[in-house]
Amino acid sequence: MSKNNTKDYPSESSDFKDLTMKFTPLSRYDFDMSIADNWCEIRAKCAPKRRCYQSSFIYQNELYVFGGTDISEQKSDDFYKIHLQDPEIKWVKLNPTGQCPEPIAYHSGTLYKEKYYVIGGENNYKVNQRTLYTYDIKENKWEKKKIDVSLT
């Protein structure tokens, strides 16, 4: 593992260059128009593997990232957060209790009050999910919800 935690990622000169363009690192956009290059990459300790098709939300200056797919197209149920205003920028892997969603990508999520709702997505077998989960931020706990879904 290299110092910047990028050993698992293809290099820019590899055959995977076009594919890796969608696996972007954490970046920040500065709305100050006097800055020529408003985008910058945020290098953080303990970074999760690069991924795409994940869901994310911000709650009390913390960015949460759930699921997604990696370069090998394996879905993930990893859940991380990073405090955006901490001087030592460091990812923290969450280990919630309860019934966690299976590894998924292409799902949707929304934050309402102190709960994060995740629905749909695709698992590693490319099966579309019709399940609703809630994540309680205060309790660090997932819960599977029963919903009546009739898709015709």
Look at the structure and name the CATH superfamily: Kelch-type beta propeller
Main sheet makeup = 5 strands, mixed
- Approximately how much helix is present in the residues? under 10%
Number of beta-strand segments: 11
Uncertain residue ranges: 1-23
Characteristic key phrases:
152 residues, mainly beta, Neuraminidase, five-stranded mixed β-sheet, 30% strand
Describe this structure in words.
With 152 residues, the chain is mainly β. Helix content is 3%, strand content 30%. The chain has one helix spanning 17-20; strands at 27-29, 39-41, 55-59, 62-66, 79-83, 91-93, 97-98, 108-112, 115-119, 132-136, 141-145. The strands form three sheets. A five-stranded mixed β-sheet has the order 7-11-10-9-8, with no helix packed on it. The chain has a four-stranded antiparallel β-sheet with strand order 3-4-5-6, with no helix packed on it. A hairpin with a 4-residue loop joins strand 10 and strand 11. The protein is globular and about 50 Å long. It starts with 16 loop residues before the first helix and ends in a 7-residue tail after the last strand.
